[in-house]
Amino acid sequence: MTTTAVQNPVPNTVKAIVRRVMPLVEGALVGAIAHFGWHPTATVVAEIVAVVATGLSIILPAAEAKFPWVGVLLGYMGAPVYAPSTKKSQATQIAALEAQLATLLAQGAEAVLPSQPTAAAPVTPVQPLPDPVAPIAPPPA
Q1: Which of 10, 26, 74, 118 is the most exposed place for a label (fewest CB within 10 A)?
Q2: Is 117 within a domain?
Q3: CB distance 52 to 30 below 8 Å
Q4: For the CA atoms of the chain, what is the radius of gyration?
């Protein structure tokens, strides 16, 4: 039996937008309740919406790390996951270009003035060893 990974049906951009807008919607809901319940001025309602939305956009993501169910209040549980960046830093790009430049300069210098090939060290001939079964001369009498 094989299992396949389930793809997230919601694109990360949609999830990010919903999770960013939900505190504003909830703040507007609190402001509307205050407007119809207490009948404050429009300025006070705007301040209530701003304070609630700002507070929720800070508190809810922080609380979600400890209590994952809080993500429901942000519209989607779990923060969007993005692929790691493949961008290189400017210093890395400069170092790669400098290495390419050094290689090209070395190739250009080699084309203009080729270096002399190095010769192998001379090989000395090997002296043959004496035959191990050569007859031994009899000792002088």
Answers
A1: 118
A2: no
A3: yes
A4: 41
What's the pTM value of the predicted model, to 2 decimals? 0.49
Residue 45: domain span: 12-74
Unique residue bearing structure tokens 């090209």 = 104
- Structure token digits, residue 114: 């080729």
**pLDDT tens-place values along the chain, 141 residues long:** 555 555 556 678 888 888 889 999 989 998 888 888 888 888 988 999 999 999 999 998 889 888 888 888 888 888 777 777 777 888 888 998 999 999 998 888 877 776 676 767 677 777 777 666 656 677 776
Helix (H) or strand (E) holding 76: none
Q: Is residue 51 part of a domain?
A: yes
Cβ–Cβ under 8 Å, residues 55 and 24: no
